[in-house]
Amino acid sequence: MIKLIVFDMAGTTVDEDNVVYKTVRAAINATGYDFTQEQVQTAGAGKEKSQAIRDVLALDGQQHGDDEVAAIFEDFKVRLKQAYADLNVREQPGTSEVFADLRRRGIKVVLNTGYDRLTAEGLVQKIGWVVGTDIDGLVTASDVVNGRPGPEMIHKAMALTGVESCEFVAKIGDSQIDIEEGQNANCGQTFGITTGAQTEAQLWEAHPTAVIHSLKELLPFTE
């Protein structure tokens, strides 16, 4: 029986037109690279964003120092803040209804993300979700030492909601690293969703419980 579902944000519960990975690409390529959007999303999807930048840079087979990664990350944050200020951020279709259905049945809902807390809280506020009313918690990459695919964010979500066994936890996200995060936390179920960064075929490569195409398709797995 599922007691807690940990939902990724961008691409899973938040529809932001892949602006994060478009911005990652813009910040990297502004320094002279020419990575494609597909390369950025394959290497960086779901990760803490400085790690995503590091892993995209590594695709060229060269050594890249911490200073270079840090400089690109700082530029990325400036660009993303402006992008979100200009963007009509909205929830993925049916998200609030799914949250309400789960919480009505006593299933806890926590968002987790590779964003830092400031960015994540800004997104949540922009959509209008309130912790304690619409969701039960928010865990971000800056709240833990080790982000995805490590299990720390899921363990923190469990602590926040009083769920003691990973067997009763499900994780859902739009990238392989979301699924791997759930598997590394020994979650009872893991789900990929095709509304974001990666394709159905890419998601199946991580061997989730299922791959779904909308959040409402998650509900039968929780009954």
Automatic annotation (TrEMBL):
Its EC number is 3.11.1.1. Keywords: Hydrolase. One of its GO terms (molecular function) is phosphonoacetaldehyde hydrolase activity. Gene3D superfamilies: HAD superfamily/HAD-like, Putative phosphatase, domain 2. It holds the Pfam family Hydrolase. The keyword Nucleus does not apply. GO terms for cellular component: cytosol. InterPro entries: HAD-like_hydrolase_sf (IPR050155), HAD-like_sf (IPR036412), HAD_sf (IPR023214), PGP-like_dom2 (IPR023198), PhnX-like (IPR022468). This is Phosphonoacetaldehyde hydrolase. It comes from Stieleria varia. The lineage of its organism: Bacteria, Pseudomonadati, Planctomycetota, Planctomycetia, Pirellulales.
